[in-house]
Amino acid sequence: MAELICRALRDGALDGEHAPALTIKDSIDSPFGPHVFNHVLAQLSANILSAKSQSQGLVLVASTRSPSFYFDLLKGRGTDDASFPKWLRVLDCYTDPLGWKVRLMECGSISNQLPEASNTVRLCNDVRDLDKLSLSIIELGRELVGQGKGRFSVAIDSATEMLRHASISSLAALLSNLRSHDQVSCAFWLLHSDLHEVRVTAALEYMSSMLANIEPMARPTNVQRGNSDNLSLLEQNSNKGKFHARLKRRNGRVRLMSEEFCIEPSGIKFTAVSSDDGMITQSLVPKVQFNLQLSEEERIERAKVVLPFEHQGTGKPIEIYDGRQSFDQINIESSFGSAEKLQTNQDPGKGEIIYFRDSDDEMPDSDEDPDDDLDI
Amino acid sequence: MALGGGLIEDAYSASRSGGGGGRVLLIEDCVETSAAFVLHHLIKRTLSPPHSSAALIIFAAFAHPFSHYDRILRKMGCNLAVQRDNKRFVFLDMLTFECPGGDGGGLVELYGKIQKAVEVSIVNGGSRSISIMIDDISLLEVAAKGSSNQVLDFLHYCHTLTTEIGCSLAVLNHEDIYSRMERPNLILQMEYLAEVIIKVEPLATGLATDVHGQLTVMNKRNFYGPLPKKSNFHFRVKENNVEYFHPGSRT
């Protein structure tokens, strides 16, 4: 399904439709959003390089990692760095997002540390101005694919970071502009959902045709955050989690899918949901020396037993021993019953309970008042 | 070194290998158990051999004056005044710091000072291991007139130093002052930023004479490093040092 998402991004936009957009959403309980983002980025880059995708280039807005981090990442996945200028542009919102360094350099308190301008990277000194940012993205894209019909993809590595400097409405305007731009093939962005109000998350989800939600394997039951008592839980969530995907079709049909992922030294790995829920319940029973559970055979035997007061549905009136019958009557009945018992013995599928009264000299209870004859 | 001091070293230095540059360490504590000792431990460790020859600490102190740290570190066997004279310990006294305007002007200046110190050290002989420490973020936030956004901007700029120059950044913050806050709260954003989180908490079972609290080290994976790792220790703060040990290994 991560595969499916990558394929949808690869296939790009139809004429006269918005470009497909993906929101990747995580939370601090399972903060693996950047891993998923990098995975999607690497897949899309591979597709662009092998000319399998609709888009011919990629514009990356980097605000939480430096451009060199992404270059290293892509090189690590086997992309040739000599090819970067042909298909990749990075808008560097990481190095100096608010222009502090420029300000300090101008007044001479620090020396020039800013990276030199290159073909691939463009520095952004004011991330608060989203209109300018939006223009820069389009310009960088056009540098890659020209003015014609070619399309490019846009990756935003942190919508959260952008929302710290701008309002949701201006970010929504930027994303909406990108999606409806006829040279944009697809767009995707990362969001830390617990840093935003629900309405912000919802607004971004509305704007995306796909949602990848990253959740922990197990949620802490304790509401209070950061309680180290559930260390085993932390341990369990520390390198794997659940991946829920929601894909919206044009006609409004929604497809939901789930996968699990695991972080490995080589990268993130997706697997189908394991169906070992049953195993979990079994392993929850503590290991003891005696047997707490029934075997399958024992379970069948137990099901056959007819309980003494259970309605047996053999057509006879239901007789419930009410303690009024005398011992003799019971004897007569039991001789009737013995014939029946022979039959029941032939039918091994039926169980019965045989009851012996403890002592014969004790008369059964009656509802007569035992104190009747007392003369008070 | 305190008995078992290696435990905490192993736990948080694991992410150091690998080419990800520096890292960000967040130390969280609460009212009942202060985590100042972790910061002292880091200073001591950075300034003692074998690291000392190429180490530099830039310490932004919002909480205490220099004499406070000097006294504590002296008991631990590390003379901060000498280190300061040797330019291995740059102390930025921020006790009376206040941001003048609403645009984070004061913080820009503070960042400028830090970057200047980094540059000077590189020019003068190339310290390879530069640590920036901030004690503590809650007071930085007070100085920024409660604007957590400005604090985050400042931390972002410090973060750029970790990736560009390979500095490491260690900051202390108090977890419980954010516990009932509406989101987004500062501590959560700092947890996203940090690669290693050290939480210092009291024992769940209450006070004990020979265990003063527990310490959880969460080592998030940085993309080139090892897998995420979590470890839990107990500690006991003594007069001159701190003992770290595995839970249950003390009677």
UniProtKB/TrEMBL annotation, chain A:
- Give the compositionally biased regions (Acidic residues): 359-376
- Any one GO molecular-function label of the UniProt entry: tRNA binding
Protein family: Belongs to the ELP5 family.
User: What subcellular locations does the record give?
Assistant: Cytoplasm; Nucleus
Q: What is its main location?
A: cytoplasm
Q: Which residues cross the membrane?
A: none
Which terms does the UniProt entry file under GO BP?
tRNA wobble uridine modification
Query: Mind naming one GO cellular-component term on file for this protein?
Result: nucleus
Which InterPro entries does the UniProt entry name for this protein?
Elp5 (IPR019519)
Instruction: Give the Pfam families listed for this entry.
Output: Elong_Iki1 (PF10483)
Q: What is this protein called?
A: Elongator complex protein 5
Which residue stretches belong to region Disordered? 337-376
Q: According to its UniProt record, in which pathway does this protein act?
A: tRNA modification; 5-methoxycarbonylmethyl-2-thiouridine-tRNA biosynthesis
Residue ranges with Polar residues bias? 337-347
**Sorted UniProt keywords:** Cytoplasm, Nucleus, tRNA processing
TrEMBL record, chain B:
- Pathway where this protein functions: tRNA modification; 5-methoxycarbonylmethyl-2-thiouridine-tRNA biosynthesis
Q: Which organism is it from?
A: Rhododendron simsii (Sims's rhododendron)
What does the entry list under GO cellular component?
elongator holoenzyme complex
Give the family this protein belongs to, as stated in its UniProt record. Belongs to the ELP6 family.
GO terms under biological process = tRNA wobble uridine modification
Q: Which residues form a coiled coil?
A: none
Superkingdom, taxonomy of origin = Eukaryota
* Protein name as catalogued: Elongator complex protein 6
